[in-house]
Write a structure and sequence with these properties.
The chain is mainly alpha-helical. The chain contains 25 helices and 6 strands. The protein is elongated, with a radius of gyration of 29 Å. The chain has a 6-stranded parallel beta sheet with strand order 3-2-1-4-5-6, with helices on both faces.
């Protein structure tokens, strides 16, 4: 890389490293931080970058990867469970907001195609900012939080056909769509949908058996970018191709591993995309048209807030929660930047209107956290909620399994069977692709992935897990997995398989509860030996229980001195003598 490129990369990374923590501390979120960094570095700021388009072209790969990850999370089965809230309130919000905003734009002399695209884009809200605000105010599980999540989910879905329609609208002549373009697009869609699932699953099955992380990462990137390129060649949005690839793999055993592999690239490139968008904000235009931009922001917020309040009331939210719903989702969204750039590329938007719209959305994202804080202070503290039984269609982003089983060998399978029999949801990870394939044939729900990697635990929903069950066969891998869990999820309960006493002590060092893999079976067999020799069954059970309690106490006592071999040996001898005395005392009491 030449020095100019290296210096540019260093400046962009430094800006992100400085801006994101500062803006998060102020409660604005990472998206606004990237936008602000772009404004500062761009042509109208410090001037480090004069050609933002060059960066934007490369950074749009981050949007493609974002759509792929969204597709992974939106399996058809999940959409079916959430259909009422998502396709009811969500569809109503997008439709009403899109119609009202498009109509206002047409009154401002926008062509109908441009007005339609921009109106629907402005109807979308920022998923990143909205969920972050709900999380910061601990409102994700509130009434308005659940409905807000459903609406955001539908917005993510509607963004896909919107992106797909832009090239078709931009390529149409005399305000009519060409049937040839539509036929090619539909053919490409059908090919990906019908052939994508079996081909992709077979591909990742072959790659997983190589046990090469680099090959799996390369394959994941190839699938995302390749599908995006194919759809782009068919005249549709590259993002649509990535989204379809994600949906087709959403219920596969490779879902979490794919998300873990793509996530670092997605986050970095998406941040770069927002920086590039910020560089493209024309500060001179804002300075020249401050009242026009301010009016645009006010109209956007008022229209969306009013409609969201009405939808909230129709959904039987209290006035307070309906107001809070509006304050979370009245802003513009990051997808609007994608839509505006795509619309500009196909000449649906002129440069001047593009700059105005980007400024309006960016400013709406900037003021939303402040306005929400002001509204919450105005409303005051909420009365203690009365708990009611959840409805069948309740939508919440955290309705995830609370148990994670790492390792589905002989040990982990028994635990999984018991949890399944008790209808306890769990997520299971296994690094052996052959084991994954075999168990999934019997209807077991598990995923391919290495549970010793923190990004894999995060992709599997680690933040929602209450109990981690670590049953990996290799002791060192077992310890690495426990270490990762303890580092990233310190409040979770960790139950771990232990090969022997030494392994158990090392697990105890990390506050994990060890379960020696042959201890219970050996005690059961010991009891059977006693009964075979004529000892009454109740006496044998009592002896086995006495030995279990004694040995578990010995394990804890030796743990305190396990780094001193002499003390460990002496403790073991003392414990053996104590146990013999206990059994002798029991025998004497029986004789009496």
């Amino acid at each position: 890389m030449h020095s100019g490129g290296l210096e540019l990369a260093l400046v962009l990374l430094l800006a992100a490293v400085i801006a994101v923590p500062v803006f998060r501390k102020l409660g604005f979120g990472a998206v606004l931080a990237y936008l602000a960094a772009g404004v500062v570095l761009g042509p109208d700021g410090l001037g480090f970058v004069q050609d933002a388009e060059r960066i934007l072209g490369a950074a749009e790969t981050g949007v493609v990867m974002l759509l792929f990850v969204i597709g992974l999370e939106l399996s058809p089965a999940r959409l079916k469970v959430m259909r009422r809230s998502v396709f009811g309130a969500g569809a109503l919000q997008v439709a009403l907001s899109g119609v009202v905003l498009s109509s206002l734009l047409m009154l401002d002399h926008f062509q109908w195609k441009s007005a339609l695209v921009v109106g629907v884009a402005l109807a979308l809200s920022s998923t990143a900012v909205g969920l972050q605000l709900l999380s910061e105010h601990k409102a994700i599980n509130s009434d308005h939080g659940r409905l807000g999540f459903a609406i955001l989910l539908f917005q993510d879905l509607i963004a896909i056909p919107l992106l797909a329609a832009i090239p078709l609208l931009g390529g149409s002549k005399n305000e009519t769509l060409r049937l040839e373009d539509a036929a090619v697009a539909l053919g490409a869609l059908a090919l990906v949908i019908l052939c994508g699932r079996p081909v992709l699953r077979r591909l990742f099955g072959v790659i997983a058996r190589t046990r090469s992380p680099e090959a799996f990462t390369a394959s994941a990137l190839l699938v995302v970018l390749g599908t995006a390129w194919f759809m782009q060649q068919a005249g549709l949005s590259a993002s649509l191709g990535a989204f379809l690839a994600g949906v087709l793999l959403s219920d596969s055993e490779y879902r979490h591993e794919l998300e873990a592999q793509i996530e670092p690239f997605k986050g970095l490139l998406l941040g770069l995309f927002f920086i590039a968008v910020g560089m493209g904000i024309d500060l001179n235009r804002i300075a020249a048209e401050p009242w026009l931009i301010a009016t645009g922001v006010v109209v956007l917020l008022v229209v969306k807030f009013s409609l969201l309040y009405g939808i909230g009331r129709l959904a039987k939210l209290t006035p307070r929660h309906a107001l809070l719903l509006g304050s979370v989702l009245w802003l513009g969204g990051e997808f609007a930047f994608v839509v505006f750039n795509e619309a500009q590329r196909v000449h649906l938007l002129g440069d001047a209107n593009h700059d105005r719209l980007v400024a309006v959305v960016g400013l709406s994202m900037a003021v939303t956290p402040l306005l929400m804080l002001a509204l919450m202070r105005l409303l005051g503290r909420e009365p203690a909620p009365q708990r009611t039984a959840p409805e069948a269609d309740t939508v919440a982003p955290d309705n995830q399994p609370k148990v994670l089983i790492a390792g589905m060998g002989r040990f982990g399978q028994v635990i999984a069977r018991l949890l399944t029999a008790q209808k306890v949801p769990f997520v299971a990870l296994e690094a052996n692709p052959d084991t994954v394939a075999d168990l999934r044939r019997f209807g077991n729900q598990l995923y391919y992935g290495d549970p010793t990697k923190p990004e894999m635990l995060r992709a599997a929903g680690g933040e929602n897990i209450r109990v981690f069950v670590i049953t990996l066969d290799d002791p060192e891998s077992n310890l690495r997995a426990v270490r990762m869990v303890r580092r990233h999820y310190p409040d979770a309960v960790v139950l771990a398989r232990a090969r022997n006493r030494q392994h158990a002590w090392r697990l105890m060092d990390m506050s994990a509860e060890p379960f020696r893999e042959v201890f219970g079976t050996s005690l059961t067999l010991s009891g059977r030996v006693l009964t075979a020799l004529g000892v009454p069954e109740d006496v044998a059970k009592r002896h086995v229980q006495r030995f279990r309690e004694h040995d578990e106490k010995l394990l804890r006592d030796q743990y305190l001195v396990y780094d001193d071999e002499a003390k460990v040996i002496q403790t073991s001898r003392d414990a053996r003598n104590d146990l013999m005395h206990l059994f002798e005392a029991d025998a004497e009491r029986k004789d009496e």
